[in-house]
Design brief:
- By secondary structure, the protein is mainly beta.
- The protein has 3 domains: 190 residues, Leucine-rich repeat, LRR (right-handed beta-alpha superhelix); 89 residues, Immunoglobulins (Immunoglobulin-like); 72 residues, Immunoglobulin-like (Sandwich).
- 10% of the residues lie in helices and 31% in strands.
- It is built from 3 helices and 25 strands.
- The strands form 6 sheets. Strands 1-2-4-6-8-10-11 form a 7-stranded mixed β-sheet, with no helix packed on it. Strands 12, 13, 15, 17 and 18 form a 5-stranded mixed β-sheet that branches. A 4-stranded parallel β-sheet has the order 3-5-7-9, with no helix packed on it.
- The chain is elongated, with a radius of gyration of 38 Å.
- The N and C termini lie far apart (154 Å).
- The N terminus is likely disordered.
Amino acid sequence: MKRGICKFLFLFFFIANGFKVFAQVLPQDSLALVAFYNSTDGPNWADRSNWLSAPVSSWAGVAIVGNRVQTLALNSNNLTGIIPDEFCDLTALEYIYLNNNYLTGNLPACIGNAVSINSIDLRNNDMSGAFPAAFATAMPDLADIWISNNQFTDFPDLTGVVELSNLHVDGNNLTFEDIIPNVSIPNLGYVYSPQAVVMQSGADVLLNIFDPFVVSVTIGGTDNTYQWQANFLNVTDNERFTGATTSTLSNNSAVVADSGFYSCIVRNTAAPLLTLQVRSSRVEVTDNRLPQTLNYQRDTSMYCGPDVLQFPIATQEGLPVSYDNVEAYAYINNALIVNAAVPGTGVIRAYNTGNTTYLPFDDTIRVVVSTHFPIS
């Protein structure tokens, strides 16, 4: 009986102490890491040493202090997918290094549960949405934020974070309302430029020629300055619209050359290192005007001396026509009559600019001048 009792007590002691040896972290931390592994394609990580197969303290990239996960360093490790909400259960995290991976989606707002975060590095991923506002109030020891080269669209005011020393937010989709509040933080290594081209996909503007139109951009921040540009597809080498320096550009009479994606440069003196390139709505101008015709032979002949040719003063549609001598002899007299003194061949251009109903007209008439009248 005593031996049985002793054996039971030994097994109980071994199991109890063995559990303490191999558990090492709180269950919520280990479960959060497992959820993170599954959500970011853990089986295809570059280094997944010991994950899910050994004590948590031996898992690649995991550092433990006491019984809590303090550091998660899985940079350049082929992580693909989203950071799951269970990540927020790692409430003792201080150092997060997940840069140079393929992470997408939002950073869960509940990450503010980890009030001890000192440094977070998410550079060179494809994350999006709002960077959590919890970083502004919930993390008194926060010193470093690196989120360069993602697709974050909103960033909080961190002026109350007294320990902040490095803030790198360049290469995102942020505008002046996100950038300017943090410019005033003293002794801050702040990198905020460049930002991605802002694609404001308003409704396409489909017009007939000579219709008026308005395009505009909406950029956060106060006291912004604007400059619209005339080369709508090439944002690196373009010309400016003279005087187009507000957030709205108006055109009272569109022509076909006005078609394209409109581009605007936006600046703000409070963040002098940043120039935002904004692309607005697409404008498509269609020319549905009718063609004109000149009711006259394109090839005609005459004789030197008293012979004359008189051209129509208007196209068949009734629009006046102007004339220019293109080749050879100065045939034209009073813009309408050819009276040639010498033989030869000339080309006369007939043209007008059209109107709101008819297309411009531009054509040539070939005139051959013979030496003398035929013998009667």
